[in-house]
Specification:
9 helices
Amino acid sequence: MGKMATTEAGSIPPLCEMLSDDIFEVRAAAIRALASLAQLKEGKIQIYDLDKLNIIIELLFDLDEQTRLNTVQLIAACAEYPPARCKFEQCLSKLKKMQEELYKSQPLVAEHAQIAIDVIEWKP
């Protein structure tokens, strides 16, 4: 109920604007909050409708490990929405590279990259 109330209160647009903040802690926190709200169908739709998927994809290249982890989780959540899934096909190669290269050094990022890959590649 809290996520629905937060979504209905209009919190997704300002959080999406924070995705391009200069301070990495702000970006990481915004992504984490959006990943939580994207668990709801309405959250996925709002993020997609705000046309922020390109910014989300760019955050896969962020230097901060926590930001990358939160981004992969956000992609996995949003990719459950079919139009977003199609858009995120653009970053499959990056996710696969992350999954392979970070398996030992950042296992949590690698694990969630695989989850995002599975969601994006899922066919009904």
